[in-house]
Amino acid sequence: MTHFLVTDDKPDGYRLEDILMLIRKDILTRALKITDDQRAEARHVMSNNMQILALISEAITLAEDSTRVLDKAFGSSAKGGPPRIGKP
């Protein structure tokens, strides 16, 4: 059972892209706090954060694409209902 995503048991869950956008925002907020820290550790963490942000942005694009494909093929699931693909 998923804890965050929309399912039959959790119709008020989130879309994957929405969760990823929130995570990206949190990482950006934390990264801003260390932008002026020139210590090696801070620079290392910032570099890692930038790579993570790029990967999350790519994942958001993929998740949005999947939503578009499902919406086009089966209509919007914004109101809940049975799964559009896969097993219930």
Word description of this protein:
- The protein has 88 residues and is mainly α.
- 59% of the residues lie in helices and 0% in strands.
- The chain is built from 2 helices and no strands.
- The protein has helices spanning 16-32, 40-74.
- Helix 1 (16-32) packs antiparallel against helix 2.
Query: Helix and strand string, N-terminal first?
Result: HH
Main beta sheet strand tally, sense and closure: none
Low-confidence stretches: none
Percent of residues in β-strands: under 5%
Radius of gyration of CA atoms, rounded to a whole number: 17 Å
The share of residues in helices is 55-70%
Number of strands: 0
- SSE-based structural type: mainly alpha
Envelope shape: elongated
> Total number of helical segments?
2
End-to-end C-alpha gap: 12 Å
Mean pLDDT: 90
In short:
This protein has about 90 residues and is mainly α.
List keywords for this structure.
single chain, mainly alpha
What is the topology?
Layout lengths: L15 H17 L7 H35 L14
Helix pairs in contact: 1-2
